[in-house]
Design a protein that fits this description.
Layout: H1 5-15, H2 31-38, E1 41-50, E2 55-61, E3 65-72, E4 81-82, E5 86-88, E6 95-100, E7 108-115, E8 118-120, E9 127-129, E10 143-148, H3 171-177, E11 182-185, H4 200-211, H5 217-222, E12 224-227, H6 246-256, E13 272-276, E14 279-283, H7 305-317, E15 323-327, H8 345-357, E16 363-367, E17 374-378, E18 386-390, E19 420-427, E20 434-441, E21 446-453
Parallel strand pairs: 10-11, 11-12, 14-15, 15-16, 16-18
Antiparallel strand pairs: 1-2, 2-6, 3-4, 3-5, 3-7, 7-8, 7-9, 10-19, 13-14, 17-18, 19-20, 20-21
Keywords: Signal
Organism: Hymenobacter glacialis
InterPro entries: DUF7800, Metallo-depent_PP-like, PhoD-like_MPP, PhoD-like_sf
């Protein structure tokens, strides 16, 4: 077989750009070849979890390929590192997880994506950061994260006649413009259709279709991404623990997200935890252990006994000034509507009583689901008030039910009934750490702001 001269040059470039070489040699590649390499990319790259010693990255190819990330500090571009090359296979829908394990604490990196050994240029910044090693050395750094839920992406062949519920995809551009350190997806991150949830083919199609939105790509490429699920990215509407394909859904979730851990309860579900600087996040699964809504909800299971025990133990062990409990549905809204936790009286009471009895400080709930945004404040005699920050929707249709339901604990002026996202800024010295909550519409316009001091949560 005669090998074209340009292909021999490309092969040589790959050989001299491995981990032992500081800089990649640039070799001209014909236009047709560049197009072929670019055509291998379906979605991403996406930045996953960040830790002091490693950072996760994700990418999805259109078919069999080998993926690799090269990364460097902008101030020292001559020193570069590469992840281990990983094969994209059909078993994982050609989605690949990569690990940048040569990072130093508290550094920012620029990176590049390679598929089949060839650079895949992106028209937006590719950046990630490692977390700082601040403990015992300095005050915890300030940081910002964005959050939202209910991201409906239209897929015309699978929509009901005359209905296209998704819109406003520019919201992802607006989120990226805020330059959050990370994004917290609060569930309903995609919407399974009737054609999807009965088969692996349908489930993986839906996750792939939702992830490929062009407006989302720059955000995925530079802000670290963490996620939980709710009913629509777990199964049918209001799906519970009986959903027959929940095992398939868990596989898809793990293939498409890059959380640092899963299955903190009995090794099942998407629940887990992570820390960003001095704040700890407890990611809950409100579907895997949930009893049917047709069961006696008062005595029913929302998180399940095992997950509830784990949560209370984990909160008790945490020394974080803010302990962010992240869950798919509202926790503190007293209105017994839809799938709110207030419908599950006994289990909700056990959670609130456990927080009080164990004298756990700094608890804040973050959730979505409701297709409106609001801040709920639950006053508790003899101790600090609990806050529940609900943020929804991103691109799904906004709802108006919040205007008439009896959330008697809603903070005045915080109800938003249009597409929106939130930004939470954590700042200040350890003795006066505070949260600054802000809500923005799909164009990025500020709608409201509120502050919560750590000293007021003790």
């Amino acid at each position: 077989m005669i090998i074209p001269s340009w292909l021999r040059l490309v092969a040589l470039a790959v050989l001299i750009s491995g981990p032992g070489f500081a800089q990649t040699r640039k070799v001209a590649m014909p236009t047709a070849s560049r197009a072929a390499v670019a055509g291998l990319l379906r979605s991403g790259p996406m930045v996953g979890y960040s830790e002091v010693r490693e950072v996760a990255l994700w990418v999805q190819a259109t078919g069999p390929a080998t993926a690799q990330i090269e990364y460097w500090e902008p101030a020292r571009p001559q020193q570069k590192w590469r992840t281990v090359a990983v094969a994209a296979t059909a078993a994982h829908a050609y989605a690949v997880h990569l690990l940048a394990d040569k990072v130093q604490p508290g550094r920012r990196y620029t990176y590049a994506l390679y598929l089949n050994g060839q650079l895949v240029a992106r028209p937006y910044p590719l950046e990630f950061q490692s977390q700082a090693l601040w403990q015992g050395q300095q005050a915890p750094p300030d940081f910002r994260f964005a959050m939202g839920s209910c991201a409906y992406i239209n897929d015309a062949p699978y929509e009901r006649p005359g209905v296209l519920p998704g819109s406003g995809y520019e919201i992802f551009t607006s989120i990226n413009a805020q330059k959050p350190d990370f994004m917290l997806w609060l569930g309903d991150n995609s919407y399974l259709r009737e054609a999807d949830w009965n088969t692996r083919t349908g489930i993986y199609h839906r996750y792939a279709h939702s992830r490929a939105v062009p407006e989302m790509q720059p955000l995925l490429a530079r802000a670290h991404q963490y996620a939980i699920w709710d009913d629509h990215d777990y199964g049918p509407n209001n799906a519970d623990r009986s959903f027959v394909n929940k095992g398939l859904m868990l596989s898809a979730f793990k293939d498409y997200w890059a959380n640092p851990n899963y299955g903190q309860t009995l090794g099942e579900g998407v629940g887990g935890t992570f820390q960003w600087n001095d704040v700890e996040f407890f990611l809950l699964d409100n579907r895997w252990f949930r009893s049917s809504n047709n069961y006696n909800a008062k005595e029913g299971s929302y998180l399940g006994a095992a997950q509830l025990t784990w949560l209370l133990d984990a909160l008790s062990s945490s020394t974080a000034p803010f302990k962010m409990v992240v869950v798919g549905g509202q926790v503190l809204n007293p209105a017994k509507v839809f799938e709110n936790y207030s419908n599950y009286e006994q289990e909700r009471a056990a959670l609130l009583q456990g927080i009080a009895a164990r004298k756990i400080s700094g608890v804040v709930f973050l959730d979505g689901d409701r297709h409106h945004t609001e801040l709920t404040k639950l006053e508790r005699p003899g101790t600090y008030p609990l806050y529940d920050f609900t943020c929804s929707p991103l691109t799904a249709g906004a709802g108006t039910s919040g205007r008439t339901e009896a959330n008697t604990s809603r903070v005045d002026g915080t109800l938003i009934t249009e597409r929106n996202f939130a930004v939470v800024a954590v700042s200040g010295p350890p003795a006066t750490r505070q949260l600054r909550l802000s809500v923005h519409n799909q164009a990025g316009k500020l709608l409201w702001e509120r502050s919560i001091a750590a000293n007021d949560l003790k």
